[in-house]
Amino acid sequence: MKAIERLLWSIALPGLGQFLNQKYVKGIICIILEFLINIQSHFNEAIHLSFLGRIEEAVQVINYQWLMFYPCLYFFAMWDAYKDAGGGKSPYAFLPFVFCAYFVTVGLMYSTELTIFGIFFGPIWLPMLSVIPGVIVGLIIRELLIRITKTDYK
């Protein structure tokens, strides 16, 4: 339960889970990076515009060069807080987090071009939707690696 709590606080704000784990230096670094990337990329403004349905305006305000750093920071902070609180002890438990970071980054790269069923999701919704295949692919690869390594040791 403690690990899930840390994970959820890290989803709210990268660095909070580290603070709860008493990893203050890591927490401060994560929070500073969060604020730096958030401000430089105009992320909050794009979130606001996207929630209002003004997706094209969100595309225009985002600084993609800065926002490309966000998925790795975000998912690393979640994994780190979860792991330090005692979670993630099973083999390759980090893979869903890693693949989420990969897929969200790719979703961000395609967010100015891609429509799904004629819907333009933009730089907020498409990366968020990319978490789903990221988790699925991460879990599948994790399961395959577990099976492969078990057969290697028999």
Radius of gyration: 17 Å
Sheet with most strands: strand arrangement: 1-2
Q: Major sheet, described briefly? A: 2 strands, antiparallel
**Average pLDDT score:** 95
Percentage of residues in DSSP E strands:
under 5%
Class by alpha and beta content: mainly alpha
Question: Brief description of this entry?
Answer:
With 154 residues, this protein is mainly α. It has helices at residues 2-12, 16-20, 24-41, 43-51, 55-61, 64-67, 70-84, 95-110, 122-129, 131-152, and strands spanning 115-116, 119-120.
Could you describe the 3D structure shown?
The protein is 75% helix and 3% strand. By secondary structure, it is mainly alpha-helical. It has one domain (1-152). Strands 1-2 form a two-stranded antiparallel sheet. A hairpin with a 2-residue loop joins β1 (115-116) and β2 (119-120). α3 runs antiparallel to α7 (70-84), α8 (95-110) packs antiparallel against α9 and α8 (95-110) packs antiparallel against α10. The longest helix has 22 residues, at 131-152. The two termini are 34 Å apart. Keywords: Membrane, Transmembrane, Transmembrane helix.
Which secondary structure elements does this structure contain, and how are they paired or packed?
Layout: H1 2-12, H2 16-20, H3 24-41, H4 43-51, H5 55-61, H6 64-67, H7 70-84, H8 95-110, E1 115-116, E2 119-120, H9 122-129, H10 131-152
Antiparallel strand pairs: 1-2
Helix pairs in contact: 1-7, 3-7, 4-5, 7-8, 8-9, 8-10
Any descriptors?
single chain; 154 residues; mainly alpha; two-stranded antiparallel ribbon; flat; transmembrane helix; transmembrane
